[in-house]
Recover the amino acids of this structure.
């Protein structure tokens, strides 16, 4: 890679990170204008949901997505890994896309996303297309675009929250 290309990539990476931080701060300050579930809404969602797609699940037991998948399974949820990089996670078949997972296993209540914010809009579109009830972006993940897509598509929305922490706290 040439020096100008490396510099351009570095600038692009810094701008993506700056955008991520701006959206995270705007969300925490209530400036995104998106209706997210409050604690009572989260409690009701977790109480009435049975099937959760874990987008970005990893077979690596050191990754948070693996820990969350295991936790959800232990808590009695039908948690399904969705990732194009794995064929199986924790003994469960992994699916390359949300549509593939729905076709093979049926619909999901919650689409729990472990991906960088810039990829979340595509996952929001997928969640709307397959008729999920909620788009849940994990702790540290905020995407105004994904949030708008989800809300306009009729989905409940949770951002910047860990489903494991919220489940343990609320239920």
């Amino acid at each position: 890679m040439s020096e100008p290309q490396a510099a351009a990539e570095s600038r692009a990476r810094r701008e993506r990170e700056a955008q991520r931080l701006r959206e995270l701060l705007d969300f925490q300050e209530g400036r995104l204008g998106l209706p997210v579930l409050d604690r009572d809404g989260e409690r009701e969602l977790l109480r009435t949901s049975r099937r959760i797609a874990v987008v970005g699940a990893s077979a690596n037991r050191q990754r948070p997505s693996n820990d969350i998948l295991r936790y959800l399974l232990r808590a009695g949820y039908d948690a399904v890994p969705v990732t194009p990089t794995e064929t199986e996670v924790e003994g469960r078949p992994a699916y390359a896309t949300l549509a593939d997972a729905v076709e093979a296993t049926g619909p999901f209540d919650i689409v729990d996303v472990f991906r960088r914010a810039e990829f979340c809009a595509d996952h929001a579109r997928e969640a709307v297309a397959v008729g999920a009830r909620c788009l849940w972006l994990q702790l540290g993940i905020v995407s105004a675009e994904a949030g708008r897509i989800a809300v306009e598509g009729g989905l409940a929305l949770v951002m910047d929250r860990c489903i494991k922490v919220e489940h343990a706290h609320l239920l």
About this structure: The chain has seven helices and seven strands. The first helix runs from residue 3 to 28. Residues 95 and 101 are 5 Å apart (CA to CA). The mean pLDDT is 96.
